[in-house]
Structures are given as structure tokens and as C-alpha cells.
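This part of the workshop introduces the protein records we will be handling. The question running through the whole workshop is how a given chain folds. To make this concrete, we reproduce a full record directly below:
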Amino acid sequence: MLPLRSTFRCLTSYCMNAFNNINRNFHSSQSLWFQSTPALCAEPLRKKKRVDPQLLRERAEKKAKRLQRDIRRLEKVSRQFKPISELDVPRKAMRDSERMRPLPEHTIAELKERVELRQLWAIYKRKQHLAEMSAMQRIVAAQERALDALQETSTELYEEALQPDPTFLPFKMTGPVETPPIDNYDYPGGDYIDVTKVYQPIVPTDPQKQKKLGLHKKK
């Protein structure tokens, strides 16, 4: 009986010691160990490369030439005017042979008569232009002589004569400049639909024409 009791007591004490050791070593914080980190030294500064000023100037000139070339290319494309739908003739009507009417053939006498009429009209318009120019010169000369004489007579009247005449072009306007609002007006509701047409520049599909306009892609 005694050996069994002593054995049980020893076993109990051994279990208690083992349990205490487990509780003592079980924790959630980091262990306070000494650690060494590698030495990190800075890299020596690299020596700056000296760039030739001539090379920088050539690069700037190339960039400026490239921009000028792009601007010229855009100007060539932007010269195309926007089409007016009211003035455009449908292609179907242009291809319709029934709508094409032959031009009347004129005789030699009619052609000579037209040439003589054009010459007479040109001579008449030239004489009319010369007469108008001479009349304007006479009027301006007379006005200058009158102003010179007026300046010698009275300086105040001369200064007054140089002022613009407001009654030379009479203009009168009466009435409100804006329409007054209407009382109790029920404004109609609705959505605004923008129907403005957007036109894109026409780029030719022919590679030669694209190269001529500067639109081809460089390899």
C-alpha cells in the first residue's frame, strides 16, 4: 500500500511541475532576443554626364521642326470647307443621265457679238470709274481749300468743322429693348435635342496623297 501511495504522489508532483512549465513558456508577446541588422551604406554619387550644348540645340531644333510640320499638316486638312446640305446636289441626281441637258451650241456670229459686248461693257465701266475718282478728288480738294480758309478766319469754327456731324446719318429707335414677361404664362415642357452636325476632315485613302499631305505613318 505504501509503495503505491508514494508512486502516485511522485506522479502527481511530476504532472504538476510539467503543467507549470507549460504555462510559464506559453505567451503571446515576442521574445526579447538580440538581433543584428546588416549595415546599409549609401551608394556613392554618380558623376553627371556632360551633354554637348550643340547636341541639345539640335534636339530643340528637331522638335521645333516636327511641331511646324504637324501644324502645316493640320492646316492642309483644315482647308476643306464644311458642306452645306442645302447647296449640295445628291449624287444620285448627278449620275442620272436624264437630268443632264446638253449645252446649246452658239454660232460664230453670236460668239463675236458676245465678245464685242464684253469689250464695250469694260470700256464703259472704266470711264465710269475714272469719272467717279475725278469727282471725288475735286470734292476732297474743295473741302481742303475751304478748311484752310476757315482756319485763317476763325480757329474755333475750324475746330468745330472738324467734329463729326451726328445728323449726317439720322437714326431713331423707340420702344422697349426687351419683350416684357407675360403674366401667368405656362411654359411648355420638353427635352432639348441637339441636331448640330459634326463634320470630320476627309482623309484620302490613297497612300501617295497621304504622303503628299504628310499623313502617312513613319515606320
